[in-house]
Amino acid sequence: MRIVIAEDNALLAEGLVLLLTSVGHEVAALVGSGPEVVPALLEHRPDVAVVDVRLPPTRTDEGLRAVLAVRERLPGLPVLVLSQHVEQGCAADLLAGGAQGLGYLLKDRVGRVQDFLDALERVAGGGTALDPEVVSTLLSRRDDPLEGLTPREREVLSLMAQGHANGTIAELLVITERAVSKHIANIFAKLDLPPTDAGHRRVLAVLRHLRA
Amino acid sequence: MVRESLRATGYLAVGAGTALLALVTLPLGPYGRRVAAVERSRAGRRLGTTIEAGESPRVLLWHLGHGLSGLVLGYLALGLWPVLLLALGLPLWWRLLPGGVLLSFGPVATGVPSALLLGLVQAALVLALLVVALPRLATGQARLAEVLLRPTARERGERAVLAHGDEVHRIERDLHDGTQAQLVAISLRLGLAERAFSANPAGALDLVREAHDGVEQALVDLRHLVHGVHPPVLTERGLVGAVRGLAARCGVPTSVRAGRDLDRLAPAVEAALYFVVAEALTNVTRHGEASEVCVRIGRSRRSVWVSVRDDGRGGAAERVGGGLAGIRRRVAALAGRTRLTSPPGGPTELRVVLPCGS
After folding, report:
1. Which domain holds residue B61?
2. What is the ipTM of this complex?
3. Which residue numbers delimit the Response regulatory domain (chain A) (predicted)?
4. Higher-confidence position of B110 and B72
């Protein structure tokens, strides 16, 4: 895959380049400040972009704003946003434009190299990768409508909201895919959601329900 | 003595200039601000301190008060010197005026002896005014500027809150961009090493070594960061012990005199005082002309103060962005005051007063 990275911390940027090239990806561009992000993405049209929320010059949310701006011009451009901490407002801003090809992960996750690469693949393929912390905050905040769910169904819901496909959920929970489908059908029925199969639409439906 | 008078005359003469400008500019308007800034800096120099900029409506009082008094004082300072010369020359010119010369205090010179005598008496009086009154008037003018142009207690409080916020923000940024990012980079390398372990053990070993170096660097940086926030030595040995430690390491012989009740101060206050002493001692060593330094720390009911005084050549000035400016910021964040006195020839004293946080 061709990837554009926007990360100002030299140590981390170097590590990301090392990681991505070592598994055969191509880093088309590496930029270190907010104003460079949009031009770099428009020029290179990467398969996926990895963008840090905080970038110079202001080091507040330059990266996030650049992502929002570029997704307005190139809807669906896959972007994985990395952040030093996860925040609901930030997640809401990102998801407002659709969950397709969108990732929002804690920076800490890059240490779990395989999980990180999987998330990146998922986002590049038009899927969603939400940090478990974002999802668990959403789940814990709105416990009322989830009261009727069994613990297993909650686990499935959480993984689904993170953007995982049925197969992965089955692997992670060590159950069969059929069991996963059954859980999902139950969850959708209990939450009164219309059944849907496409990954990102499913995530959106779940998140919209949780935020409502 | 006469040099003091000349300096005071110069001060008051320039004061007449700023007085005129104060009368024709608007307080807190762009030109008014500039005039006030000039006055602050020259008053600060005269008083051996730095006057911060205040923005309160009291500035209006300064424009009026200094505008009127400054003109009169400038006229007086400049006018006294010719009077002195005229009085001393009285025996030479008293004849030029018909009917004798009426001196300011009544008697009339009618001959050479009386002209000589009266001239000397008048010169002595004028000289006394020049020597005794003029420097005091100049200092008084500077004090007026200090009192009316510096920030009010309320402004200082507001600024303290802002400065404190900046300080917290700086720490957060250091942790965020430094330590946390380093840990992520290390974690990433360990993750890569794990992947490479079976296929390429040598490559994995390199990555582990890099991660190890990264951990050591992160520890060094973290230690510096912690030191910058609250030096651990304060926790271990208390403020006085920590200051004695600084004194023992200083290149110039340094004595420490500490008062009572200094062991239960707020951590932020302790840290600020510690950094004041550290910075002052660094400066003393750097300029290298002092033969001894005295550090004194004491507290009253509501405040705690520290003074670092050396016997060097004096003339220390505060640079923008220098170490002392950092100290001033830190002290201001705790609503304290910093005062640097360093007349040419010395001694130099840095004095900081902080409200007690305990």
Report:
1. 2-151
2. 0.71
3. 2-122
4. B72
